[in-house]
Every structure is written in structure tokens, then in C-alpha cells.
Amino acid sequence: MNRATRTFLAVGAWALLAVMMVWTLAPIAVMVFTSFKERNDIFAIPATLLPKTWTLENYASVFTSSSMPQALLNSVVVGALVAAATLVFCFSAGYALARFRFRSSRPLAIFILLGQIVPLTVLLLPLYQLVSSLRLLDSTIGIALTHLVITVPLVTWMIRNQIAAIPIELEEAAQIDGGSRFDAVSYVTLPIAAPGLAAAGMFAFLQSWHEYLFASVLTTSSSSRTAPVALTEFATEYSVDWGATMAASVIITVPIVIVFIVLQRYFVGGLTGGAIKG
Question: What is the CATH number of domain 67-272?
């Protein structure tokens, strides 16, 4: 391959990346700048990306004239519950699948992963009946319970691969030194698997944070409504308050972006840590 060909391929690759970046970031830019526009500015013709007059009125409306503050708090509570419960359940299941050898261990692991391909709409009615029978309708705990259906299958597989990549000889050495299996898991396996667990917890939180279907069906009041559901408040039968909708969307997005940036190295390391063995 001569120099001209290499240069052409490099330029083509960078051009493709630039197009993909614009395609990805353009909607985000429109959302952010629209949140700072006045109502008349949003529908101005010709349309402009930047606001003619910058205003914080849309953000003030979100925080003072809607249930979004309570919905954000509900989303944080639900997400934290889902992340914690997912890590507890999936670490136990993932450890068992990785360490205990029995005839159907691998088929069982694959069967758990198949839960990811089941459409959520198929599960909606049985989950609604389950939550209703537990008297948890219109509650954050009820929403968190249904979100486990989304997070548990894939996170179990992620953690199973993480643990399988850790040499079992490390645990055996701890047990030879007098520790129990629980000690070996607590002081050897857990610290090594910490990046993977952080990635799994973040994945579970993100899945809960933006979930809409279950949250919209299982909640009837603002006391338990989550942020994605609260976005619908700004749309009526005949009009949509696009300024407030975009402002609320920015408010929902920014915390997740910050958390992802802070935990990015754990997230990437956790997703790839179990990719070699398992």
C-alpha cells in the first residue's frame, strides 16, 4: 500500500468520523440551545440554532411549575435501589455460575441472557399483576422491582464473565491460609472485580434512569413518577411547551453525563475485563 492510498484512507476515516460526530451531537446541540430560547424564538422562521435572546425562563418553569424536581428525586431513589439490588442478586448468581461446576451451568447462563430478547411489552401485564398483588403500585419500590427484569439478565452475564476471568487459585490460596470461602470472596474476589461491579452498577442505574414504559404504567401520581414520565407534563392535547421540554431534557441528561465522565475508566474496564475468559 503506497503513501497516497494510506493518506486517502486516513482522510476518508476522519471524514466518516466527523459525519458520525455531527449526526450524534446535532440533536444534543439543538436540545441545549432550544432550552435557552424564548417561545417566539423557538418557532421563528427562518430557524436558527443559537437563541436571539438567551433566557432561563424555561428552566425556572421546570423547577417551579412542574413536578420535575420530585420526579428527579424519584428517579435517583429508584436508580439507586435498582443498582444496589442488581449488584447483590447478580453477584451471587454470577459467582455461582462462574465457580460452581454442574451439568447445566453454561446452558443456564445462556438461558438467563435470553431474558434480554424478550420484549418488555410482553412482561408488562404479569409484572403489573405482581406489583399490584404486593400492593406496591404507585411507589418507587414497585418501579424498582420491575426494573430488575431489565437489568438482571445482562448484569448476571457480565459479572459471571468478570469472576470467571479471576484465577480461582487466588481464592484457594486464601482458603489454604485459613480463610473461609466467604473471606476469600470478600478480600480477594470482590476487590479484583470492583471495576466490573462499578460498570454493572452504572449500567443498572442508567437502564432504570431512562426507562419509561413500566414507570408510566405503574405510577398514577407525582409522588412516585420518575423523570422520563414527568416530561409528558409539558405536552397537552393541543400544544407542546418545547422550551420547558428541552430544559427538562437537559436537566435529566447532565447528571448522567457527569457520572459517566467520572466513572468512565471503571465502565470501560468493567465491560472489557471479562472478555478474554468466560
Answer: 1.10.3720.10
